[in-house]
Amino acid sequence: MLTTSQVHPVDAVLLDMDGTILNSIKSAERIWSAWALRHGLDVDAFLPTIHGVQTVETIRRLGLPSVDPHAEAAAITQAEIDDVEGIEAIAGVAEFLGALAEGSWGIVTSAPRALALRRIEAAGLPTPPLLIAAEDVAHGKPAPDCFHLAAARLGTTADRCLVVEDSRAGIVAAERAGATILVITSTHPTPMAVEHPAIVDYRDLVLETTPDGSLHIRHAQGGGDRPARLSCIVKAGRPSETSRPRL
C-alpha cells in the first residue's frame, strides 16, 4: 500500500474501460435485463454479476441448459454495439488521457474489440494507442494475462504499470500481475472496500509535468481520510521506442 511519502515510478498506465473511463451501465443493464428475463433469472440478483468479466464467461458460469454461451454472447455483444444511448465519459478522464504520452497508455477491457471501440467513440473519447480486448487473451479477468500482454506491447512489464480499475475482477487481475493499482468508484452503487488508492473520478487527481518531461500523478489535497494516497511518476522516454503501441 502506498503512503503519502512514496512516489512510485511506472512506465505506463493501463485503464479498464467500462466503469473506469466511461459509464455504460444504463446500456448494459437494459440489454442484460431483457436477456435475464427471457431466461427466467432474477434480474436484481443477476445484474451485479455482469461487470468486469467477459460476456461468454458470465453466461457460461450460469450453467443454463440448452444455452450456447458463445452464441448468446455474440447476440448480446451485437445488441450492446447497437445500443449506446446514455454512454458517458467519466468526469475528468479526457484531460487525464490527454496528459499521457501516446506510447505510455492503453485500454485493457473484458469487452470484445468492436464493442469497446463503439463505446469509446460514443463517449467522445480518443481511440486508444493500444487496446487489449476479450479476443486477445485465452483467460480474461481475474486472470492477469491481459495486463501482462498490454505491458509487453508497450515495451515494459506489468509490475512497472499503473492500472486503473473499478471492478473486483479487474482489481484481482491487476494484483496478480503485480501492478500499482488505482481504484475508481464513480459508478459504484455502494462503497467497495479496497486497500489500494481510490478516487471517485479523475478530478480527484493532480497531474504535473516534471522538469525531465515525466508526468507526476497524485491525489489532490483534501477529500478526507484515505487508506492510501496515489503518488506515481510516469517516466519520460518510456516505454521502449522499439515497441510501437498498436490496436
From TrEMBL:
UniProt cross-references to NCBIfam families, sorted A to Z: HAD-SF-IA-v1, HAD-SF-IA-v3
PANTHER family reported in the protein's UniProt record: FRUCTOSE-1-PHOSPHATE PHOSPHATASE, GLYCEROL-1-PHOSPHATE PHOSPHOHYDROLASE 1-RELATED
GO MF: sugar-phosphatase activity
Gene3D superfamilies in alphabetical order: HAD superfamily/HAD-like (3.40.50.1000), Putative phosphatase, domain 2 (1.10.150.240)
Annotated source species: Chondromyces crocatus
Protein name per the record: Glycerol-3-phosphatase
